[in-house]
Amino acid sequence: MIAFLERFIPENDKETEADDDGIIINREIELQGSIDYGCTGPAGKDFGGMNDIRPLAVIRPAGPEDVARVVSAASKSANLTIAARGNGHSINGQAMAERGMVIDMRAMNGQIEVVRISGSSYVDVGGGVLWEELLNHCVLGFGVSPRSWTDYLGLTVGGTLSNAGISGQAFRYGPQTSNVSELEVVTAKGDTLVCSESQNSELFFGVLGGLGQFGIITRARVLVQTAPDMVKWIRVVYAEFEEYARDAEFLVTRPEGDSFDYVEGFAFVNSDDPVNGWPSVPLGSDCGFDPISIPRTAGPVLYCLEVAFHYRNDVESSSIEKVVGHMLGQLRFCENLKFQLDVSYIEFLQRVKRVELAAKATGIWDTPHPWLNLFVSKPDIADFDRMVFKKILKDGIGGPMLVYPLLRSKWDDRTSVVIPEGEIFYIVALLRFNPPYPKGPPVEELVAQNDEIIQCCITHAFDFKLYLPYYRSQDQWKRHFGKQWPKFVERKTRFDPTAILAPGQRIFSRTHPPLS
């Protein structure tokens, strides 16, 4: 047992509830895990690399019971806050707690158990488990797979469910938040509750997409289905955004069985730039991009539609080619600018892993990443393309510029996630991998470019929302949530009345007594 001692209380002032910083727990708690005091380490940084925030302590829990004990103790303090940290992939310090406690969710034993309930298959998984760990366990061990993924799988289950979790399967199955039937959550009072659509439902829907504001996810029950063996991975190129968007929207609105299993896409620069241009499109090293096939009318930015078709090893290749050929035949991409590759299902889902390894080898993985993620409504996406992709970002960003459609009907509006109005909206993800200054642009310049893009959306009254949002004031958060703000505040008051959870989001300030 490791006691959480009152080491921050002056020896001559044990009766006081708080020191000058108000960060004292005037009691002991017993943990099975460990506590590190007074050092930042990884808990003081994140993937964004733009913040360096010192926590009071880092908790490495042995299990959910430790999480509950720490949160319960914090709830009885005057000013202590708690941040649950998964794999540290946030961009703007969302998983940090200045002079608070950071709970390292990766420290817990990774529960992964495939279960079958009422004819459906699920996997019970700990909140600190990475999706790539879940992939290997489910596919290799049981031949099943979650329906909805993220592009990068080095993220924790609890982390993505606290936001949404999207990738090229979301047009069919919705985000990861739409594929969960049950959660185990530690509330801000230190209570451990099982919740679902029919049990503690307000907590269940509040936590999904709730940015960590209402509880800490320690277990999730995720829907799974039979996993395919192989994937036919295809990329095709467009010169005009309108044609690209028309075909992408056509594919995501087709019924299941009459479309691809994965639909994404990205904008890229019409040049030979090795990172932002033509070389970023081909699949595999044995084929190149022939720019002679680009129409002369093309502008500074081109578009790549990326699709994938799942299949089993026992299916005749001629049948697969016939189905894929029929679907591609309905699209109007540039002739001779099609690239395809057959890979295993696991290899396809781990495609970003290769990018990670390459970035780590060059050191770019550890440089600042001022990424920007937005949802933009269909009525505004053409203007967004004209003003942002073709002007502000016409020279690229040093990494992928994702843009592809999603369907509102696949999202559960009872969760805390906010998205634009209308059935079709687009995810825009600007994923910068720039070398550090002076080899690359200063971080301040890239942040200013993000601000310019957001301001452009505001000025032209686009219907948009930030995904993985970050704002500096509560007024900005109110605008973000819009008509859902009262509900969000109501849930906060109910489940975390003193605002001890997720202080790095900067939505609410720690209060004592509870919010009125």
UniProtKB/TrEMBL annotation:
Superkingdom: Eukaryota
A Pfam family that the UniProt record links to this protein: Cytokin-bind
E.C. code: 1.5.99.12
Cofactor: FAD
Entry-linked SUPFAM superfamilies: FAD-binding/transporter-associated domain-like, FAD-linked oxidases, C-terminal domain
The FAD-binding PCMH-type domain, residue ranges: 51-227
GO biological process, one term: cytokinin metabolic process
Similarity section: Belongs to the oxygen-dependent FAD-linked oxidoreductase family.
Cross-referenced PANTHER family: CYTOKININ DEHYDROGENASE 7 (PTHR13878:SF112), GULONOLACTONE OXIDASE (PTHR13878)
Record-given protein name: cytokinin dehydrogenase
